[in-house]
Design goal:
Two copies of one chain form a homodimer. Chain A has helices spanning about 5-15, 20-30, 40-45, 55-65, 110-120, 135-140, and strands at about 35, 70-75, 80-85, 90-95, 100-105, 125-135. Chain A is α+β, with helices and mostly antiparallel strands and about 140 residues long. The interface of A and B includes residues 105, 118, 121 and 128 of A. The first copy, chain A, binds a DNA duplex (30 and 30 nucleotides) through helix 2 and helix 4.
Amino acid sequence: MDSSEVLTSFIKKNGLKKTSVRHLLLDLIKKKSGHFDVEELLLGIKQKNLKVSRASVYRTLHLLVGAGLINESLQRDGRTVYEYSSEKTHHDHMICVKCGKLIEFSDSLIEKHQKEICKKHKFVMTGHKLEIKGICSLCKNKV
Amino acid sequence: MDSSEVLTSFIKKNGLKKTSVRHLLLDLIKKKSGHFDVEELLLGIKQKNLKVSRASVYRTLHLLVGAGLINESLQRDGRTVYEYSSEKTHHDHMICVKCGKLIEFSDSLIEKHQKEICKKHKFVMTGHKLEIKGICSLCKNKV
DNA sequence: ATTGATATTGAGATTCAGTATCAAATAGGA
DNA sequence: TCCTATTTGATACTGAATCTCAATATCAAT
């Protein structure tokens, strides 16, 4: 089932309506395939001479998170950064506090431990976020 | 070296000035010993008939983070939640998306893996945050 | 295809956490 | 005490995210 079908079935299951705005945004996001925020999406929309309002972008992003198609990835400069939930394993982030560089990594052992901890607390995990802040190898060697 | 001394030496080392506001806030935070945000601090200040401005609270919190005395713990309802960096090992959080309940946990294996990953990427970690979102055991059993 | 009930959208106003500004107050060395 | 740099408080400002509400679109039933 591809993402468009996932969206359609999520919409149907929740008594919502299939709209062009919702599928248009999903398409834009799929093409980006990486991290993005609301400003980036709005810029892309403007450049392509499409018409989607800021409010609809925010609303649709919430919807897509609910459908599991995208994730709130992290906060950067006060903005929420999202990413498309691809099939590849969940990954986490290192953020360089000097240059803002984002490094992705994934560690199956950490994932496994998280699941065990949730089990121990009888907690049903719906999402998780691991952010490591520090100084990247390039910045470390500067001055 | 207790936290007040840590603050004093941090202030001296950075050519800053020792002020009553800074030590007052540190004392308030130590007494709280748990999670807190700016509004909570301001409320406590008001109730005790103390006088510290909102701007100074924000400024001092940044200072205390820099001195390693407190941590930015997580985001809750758009507000930054801090916590006092006690001697106990670093801990992470589970947040119930239904009731907002915060569950603390710590896992030395996860910590260890994080360090290894940083080493692999030649990344100098200055802090990290792990947030697991989901549904707590109490909410799970409610309708 | 038309209707009607309901959900969605766009434009702009609003909210609110956090930041910037700047004059007055304070710290602390000389 | 004096001098200079830092800090503080009051308040204006910023900007991401949300709210409002009239206009529009969806879709099931006719």
